[in-house]
Amino acid sequence: MLPDGDDLPELLLDLAVPHEEINELVAGLRRVNDDPGALRLLRECVEELFRDPQETGRTPDLAELLDAAPAGLGGAFAVYVFLAAVPHTLARHRERGIPTETSRRTLADLGRHMAVHRRRYGTLGVHARRWLVRHFRGELYQLGRLQFERARLGQRSAPVLAAAGLDAVPGTPCLNLHIPDFHGPLTPAACDRSLALAREFFALHFPEERPVAALCHSWLLDPQLKQYLPADSNIVRFQERFRTAREDTEPSDTEPVQFVFGAPDLPVARLPRRTSVERAVGDHLRAGGHWYIGHGWFPFPFPFPLPLTTEPASGGA
Asked: What is the residue-wise DSSP string for 292-306?
C-alpha cells in the first residue's frame, strides 16, 4: 500500500511535501510497515476514504481512525494514509481521462496543508485532514488559481437560484469554488483563466453532471471589505463576480485572522498592519466590528465559454 523507502522521497516531492519533512517520513515508514496494527489501521482509513466513491457531497470523517494511530507516529500517520490513497486516486482520475498535471497539482494540496500545520504548531502533521479527503476522492480539483469542488445545491441555495431563473432544485449539480492559500494574488486574469479551465474540464471529464452555478462561501465575500480596500483591488473585483446567496448573522471573526495571519486565536490588539488586507482585518476587529462568511454564486453556463479579462490586474490585495 505504501511506496518503497527509496521511492518515497520522489512521491513526497510530487505532492509538494516540504523538504524538511521528508527525512522524518522516510524514517517512519519502516515502523509502519513493521507494525501489523498500523498497517491494518492504514487499510481501514483508505477503505473509509473511498467508501461510496461516486457520491458527491459526502465527506468521510477519518478523525476517529486517525486518532487511533500508534503512539509515536503522531501527525505522520495521516500523511501515510494519503500516500497509500494516491494509487487509488490516480486510477480514478485515469478512468475519467484527467490529465496527469491536473492530478499532480490537485494532490499537491497535501504539501500545502502540511506547511500550514508546521507554521501553526511547529510539528509534522496535516492541517484540515478532512478537507483533503475531497481531493483524494476525486471531488475537488485545482484548476489554475482556484479549486473547484463537485457538489449539489442544498435546501437554502436552490430556491435562490431558481428565483433568478435557473433550472435549480435541491440536488442539482453545482460547483463549490475555493481559494487556496500560498498561490499568489487573486488577480482577475488568474480567476478568468481558472473559470475557463473549469468549463472545459468539467464538460470533458464529468459531462453527465452539467453544473448550473458556481458557489463560494468565504470571508473574502464579506461586503464590509469594500469599506477598507480600493475598488480596483483584487478582492473587491473578485467579490463583484458574485450575486448574494444569503447573509450570515453569526460572526466568524477567526476566519480572516486564521487565513491572513496564520492562526485563529492571535491577540487582536497585536495583529500586524503590513498590508492593506492585514490593516482591514485587524482595524475592523479593533474597532469592535465583526467579520462574516459571505455566500455568493454566479451562473455557470454549460458549455459556453467565459470571455477572458484583458485589462491589467491591480495590486496584491
From this structure: --EEEEEE--SSPPP
The cell for 162 is 431558481
| Alpha carbon separation from 206 to 53, 128, 150 (Å, rounded) | 14, 26, 9
What's at 282, amino acid-wise?
G
Q: What is the pTM of this model?
A: 0.91
What is the distance between the alpha carbons of residues 279 and 258, in angstroms, rounded to a whole number? Answer: 14
Residue 312 pLDDT exceeds 80: no
Q: Three cell numbers at 274? A: 503590513
pLDDT tens for residues 235-292? 999 999 999 999 999 999 999 999 999 899 999 999 999 999 999 999 999 999 999 9
Q: How far apart are the first and last CA of the chain?
A: 43
Residue type, 169: V
Is the peptide bond prior to 173 cis by the omega test (within 30 degrees of 0)?
A: no
Contacting residues for 153 by C-beta, under 8 A, at least 6 apart: 161, 168, 169, 170, 171, 172, 173, 174, 212, 213
- Name beta bridge partners: 101: none
